[in-house]
Specification:
It holds the Pfam family HET. InterPro entries: HET (IPR010730), HetReg/Transcr_Mod (IPR052895). The chain is mainly β. The protein has helices at 101-110, 124-127, and strands spanning 4-6, 10-11, 22-23, 32-38, 59-66, 74-75, 87-91, 96-99, 119-122. The protein has one domain (29-127). It contains 2 helices and 9 strands; from the N terminus they run E-E-E-E-E-E-E-E-H-E-H. The strands form 2 sheets. Strands 1, 4, 5, 6, 7, 8 and 9 form a 7-stranded mixed sheet that branches. A hairpin with a 4-residue loop joins strand 7 and strand 8 (96-99).
């Protein structure tokens, strides 16, 4: 049984001339972590093999969970390459979150098929507050 709650993360509405910034809610105890809940493709996206490389929006949620009680998740190890966060993913509440190209590509590859369950990931760029 998993004990998770949606992170009380505050997202600023995006203006075309600015990048979206998020303020992470502080983790409440040393054993608490953030996970990315990656939502599946939509049926209208079609089968994976028929899709163009440029997919529809990626939908994610940042959730807080106790590491000892966490649902199964995949930890992602990758090279940041550029710190330029020019690619977007959408939160479940339709706010924009900017990520690097490598993180966007990881999310595109790992996104579950339509009608599948969401997948849970730990990606440092999203799960660690990079500002503190």
């Amino acid at each position: 049984m998993s004990h998770m709650k949606t992170a009380d993360t505050h997202w600023i509405d995006v203006d075309d001339s600015k990048s979206a910034e998020c303020t992470y809610k502080t983790l409440s105890k040393p054993s608490e972590i953030r996970l990315v809940k990656l939502h599946p493709l939509k049926i209208e996206d079609g089968p994976r093999e028929d899709r163009a490389d440029t997919l529809g929006p990626l939908y994610v949620e940042l959730i807080h969970t106790d590491l000892e009680e966490a649902t199964d998740f995949t930890g992602i190890s990758y090279i940041w390459c550029s710190s330029n966060r020019q690619h977007t993913v959408l939160t479940a509440t339709n706010k924009v979150l900017y990520v690097t190209e490598n993180v966007r590509n990881i999310l595109k590859i790992l996104r579950p098929e339509a009608l599948d369950e969401p997948s849970y990931l730990w990606i440092d760029q999203l799960c660690i507050n990079q500002e503190d």
